[in-house]
Amino acid sequence: MTEAIPNPFTNRGVIADPDDFFGRQEELNEIFTRLRNMQSSSIVGDRRIGKSSLLYHLAQIGTQRLRDPHYRFVYLDLQDAHYHTAVGFLQTVLQKLDINAETIQTENTLNRNLIAFSDALETLENTGQYIVLCLDEFENTFKHREQFTEDFFDHMRAQLNIRKLAFVTATQHPLQRLSLEGKLTSPFYTLFTVVELGEFAEADAYKFLVNQNRKAHFTDGEFEFIFNYLQLHPLKLQILCDWVVKNRQRRLPERDLAAEITKEFGNFFVGTFSPRQFLRLKRTVSLSQIKRLLEAVKAGRDLLSDS
C-alpha cells in the first residue's frame, strides 16, 4: 500500500488550530491594544481573505495574549440560525458565559430581554470579568431587522460605551458604509476602530511555508514552482501548495497544473484569471534568489520581505 502523501494544505474553512495560524500580527496588536481598554474593533476585508480565521484565533488566544484571566472571549458565527433572533443571540451569549439564560424569553419584550442581558453582564463585571464578543459575519444581523432593531443596536452601543463589554466584528464592508446605505441608522458603529485585512505580507507567506514544510517536505523543484507563482492571498496560497503536493502523484506538466490551480481558484473567487494568465504571472526569480530562499525556508529563519 502506498504511503499517504503528507498534505497540510487541504483546509478551505476557518483555521481552527492555533498552530496553523500565520501572520496578521499587526492586526492582532491593534485589536489587543484596544481590548486592554475594552474598546471595540471592526475587522473589514474581502471574502475569503481570512477574517473568520483571525476572529476565531483571537477568541482562542485572547486571554493568554492579554495575560489576564479576567478576559473572557465568546465566538459566534452569525450565519448560524441560532443567532437569527435577538432571543437566540442573547441566550447563547449568556450560556457560553455559564450564566443562567432563563431570564431571556421569547414572550418578553425586547426591552425586557435587553435589560435582563445587561443585568447578567453586570454580575460578571462586578467580579472583575471583561467580556469580549467575537461576532463573525456581522452583516447577518441586518438581514433580520425585525429582530435586530435600532433599539437593539442603541442598547448595545450603550453597553459598549460604558465598557461593560467589547465587540470585535467581522464584515466585508465597514459598519459606517452599512450605516450610510441605510442598513444601520444607529450611531453604533462610531465606537469601533476599523482594522482592514488584506493579503499576506510576503514575509508572512514565507513564514507560512517555513512551518508547513515541516509536514509537506517540498523538493527544491516544488519550492521553485511555489516561489515563481507565489500567491499572497491566504486561500490562494493554500490552494497553490495543495496542488503542488497533489502533483507528486499526478505529475502534470506546468501548463496542466496551472489549469487545475486556476480552476479551483474559480470555485472560490469571481473573475479569477485563466491558466494562461496564471502562467504569465511567473516571477523572474533568479537562481541565486531561489537558492537563498530555499536555504532560509529549510533553516526556518525569518525572511526579508524584499527576498
UniProtKB/TrEMBL annotation:
Coiled coil: none annotated. Residues 40-212 form the Novel STAND NTPase domain. Gene3D superfamilies: P-loop containing nucleotide triphosphate hydrolases. It holds the Pfam family nSTAND2. It comes from the Bacteria. PANTHER family: ATPASE DOMAIN-CONTAINING PROTEIN, DNA-BINDING PROTEIN-RELATED. This is Novel STAND NTPase 2 domain-containing protein. It comes from Candidatus Entotheonella gemina.
